[in-house]
Amino acid sequence: MDAFVDLLYWRDVKKTGVVFGAALLLLLSLTVCSIVSVCSYVGLALLSVTICFRIYKGILQAIQKSDEGHPFKQYLDQEVALPEDVVHKYSDLALAKLNKTVCELRRLFLVEDLIDSIKFAGLMWVLTYVGSLFNGLTILILVLIGVFSCPIVYEKHQTQIDHYVALVNNQVKDIVGKVQAKVPGMKRKAE
């Protein structure tokens, strides 16, 4: 988890740049080509590099009459299988999240709580407008850029951002309080 946080906060600029650049390049490629084409091109590029490197090392070994062996031997000897306990742990976590989501959607769609279902309907209505402005890949690109830029911007300007967020939060609470006072049946739930 610490490695992920370090990645988002650009602690190692080279590593973060590679991850951010590769992810952004992948998403931008998907806007132009299908996922099958992008995966095929990435596979071909990787194979081209590894085959050329293997041939190059083979020629060097033949010229120098050395016996270094396969250039990727250390990677071929590494274990790449996923441990069963880790797979079970994460699949159990995913199943628990899925079950919770299904229960929450059932509650919202079957109107267990009218106010929550109306809020959900409002969210779906707003998302129809978002969907008409952006496609899914554009939203993913914007999310990727936000994930890699917001933490560092917040870290550098934390006091100003906290000040303005507190002001906005107070304004929203005042407006919600006024609306709840004027609209019958919209009293706050007991906390």
From TrEMBL:
Stated membrane topology is: Multi-pass membrane protein
Query: Which parts pass through the membrane?
Result: 20-47, 133-154
Location(s) in or outside the cell = Endoplasmic reticulum membrane
Enumerate the UniProt keywords alphabetically. Endoplasmic reticulum, Membrane, Transmembrane, Transmembrane helix
PROSITE patterns, sorted: RETICULON (PS50845)
Mention any one GO cellular component term assigned to this protein in its UniProt record: neuron projection
**Start and end of every Reticulon domain?**
4-191
List the InterPro entries.
Reticulon (IPR003388), RTN1-4 (IPR046964)
What GO terms describe the biological role, i.e. biological process, of this protein?
Answer: brain development; endoplasmic reticulum tubular network formation; neuron differentiation
Tell me the first and last residues of the signal peptide. none
Q: This chain belongs to which protein, by name? A: Reticulon
